[in-house]
Specification:
This protein is α/β, with parallel strands linked by helices and about 300 residues long. It has 3 domains: about 90 residues, Translation factors (Elongation Factor Tu (Ef-tu), domain 3, Beta Barrel); about 100 residues, Nucleotide-binding domain of ferredoxin-NADP reductase (FNR) module (Rossmann fold, 3-Layer(aba) Sandwich), CATH 3.40.50.80; about 80 residues, Ubiquitin-like (UB roll) (Roll). The protein is built from 7 helices and 18 strands. The strands form 4 sheets. The chain has a 6-stranded antiparallel sheet, with helices on one face. The chain has a 5-stranded parallel sheet with strand order 9-8-7-10-11, sandwiched between helices. A 5-stranded mixed sheet has the order 13-12-18-14-16, covered by helices on one side. The longest helix is centred in the middle third of the chain and has 14 residues. It is globular, with a radius of gyration of 20 Å. The chain binds FE2/S2 (inorganic) cluster. The site of FE2/S2 (inorganic) cluster has 14 residues, from loops. FE2/S2 (inorganic) cluster (FES) binds next to loops.
Length: about 300
């Protein structure tokens, strides 16, 4: 895509900063579809993915919203703590790994900043006259990003659930009440997505793209060895580090992007050993036979894993 200018920054909810990006020459931007994200290269060089959350028909500006994650990997703090307005940032994308697939209607479930890919979905469904319902939960009212826009858009199709007043959203009841043929889309933190998947295994889910993510280094129970067969190297992956982290020390050019297991950039062929898949690229039904793994989040169920690197 090239560099885009940060034209505006706006505080839209507690710890949520919205950025508007335009072409430096004021020209038009490529079209995108709800669910798409872009990757920003921050002034420090950190690259972070953010869902596009503006209006897909607006070709003058792209909008992202960034939730500050105090104990994240630093991307969101940099966005919040740096004067970005007037600066140009390198942008890749848009990329869509969370597309709206055809259905009779949609139940959209958002946790916190997970609203960002679902808001443009709600806009698009409204424009197309397709039924939808959206539930947005957050710790308290001050953290319900885009609440006013949602209510204006959907009226009583939108249920806002501030946890300190109303507790957690009743996901089981909402999913049970969805009419037949309606698709369930969910974006939010891992515990919420785990609950959604246990209630509705056909749901489409995405971890929120705060840019720091809530994806901990997965499988922190133990270390294992990785053999890089083409490079004839062997190394140990400690319990608290990802395969990608360790491999990058040996092979700095290894590709990656989101570091959260959803973009597919770090997909690597596995030649021996048993991967413990933690990503959202490989469908759960295909994990047992998959011959590749996303090394940014997936780990090993065997003592040694051989990778074609
Ligand atoms: S870097 Fe995106 S899936 Fe691994």
């Amino acid at each position: 895509m090239g560099p885009l200018l940060v034209r505006q920054a706006r505080w839209i909810a507690h710890d949520v900063l919205e950025l508007q990006l335009t072409r430096p020459d004021g020209g038009g931007l490529p079209p995108w579809e709800p669910g798409a994200h872009i990757e920003l290269t921050l002034p420090s060089g950190l690259r972070r993915p953010y869902s596009l959350c503006g209006n897909p028909t607006d070709t003058r500006a792209w909008t992202v919203a960034v939730h500050r994650v105090p104990d994240g990997r630093g991307g969101s703090q940099e966005v919040h703590d740096t004067a970005l307005v007037g600066r140009e940032l390198e942008v890749r994308g848009p990329i869509n790994r969370f597309p709206l697939l055809p259905a009779k209607g949609y139940l959209l479930l958002a946790g916190g900043i997970g609203i960002t890919p679902l808001l443009p979905m709600a806009r698009e469904l409204t424009a197309r006259g397709i039924p939808w319902r959206l539930i947005l939960g957050a710790r308290d009212r001050s953290r319900l990003a885009y609440a006013d826009d949602l209510v204006e858009l959907g009226g009583d199709r939108v249920l806002l659930v501030p946890q300190d007043e109303a507790g957690l959203p009743d996901l089981a009841a909402e999913i049970a009440a969805a009419p037949p043929g309606h698709a369930v889309y969910a974006c939010g933190p891992t515990p919420m997505l785990d609950t959604v998947m246990s209630l509705c295994p056909t749901a489409y889910t995405e971890h929120f793209t705060s840019g720091d993510g809530d994806t901990q280094v997965a499988g922190t129970k133990g270390e294992f060895d990785v053999v890089l067969t083409r490079s004839d190297l062997r190394t140990t992956v400690p319990a608290d580090r990802s395969v990608l982290d360790v491999v990058r020390e040996l092979l700095p050019a290894v590709p990656y992007s989101c570091e959260e297991g959803y973009c597919g950039s770090c997909e690597t062929p596995v030649t021996a050993g048993i991967p413990d898949h933690r990503d959202t690229v490989i469908d759960p039904s295909e994990r047992a036979t998959a011959t590749t793994m996303m090394i940014c989040v997936s780990r090993s169920a065997s003592a040694v894993l051989e990778l074609d690197l």
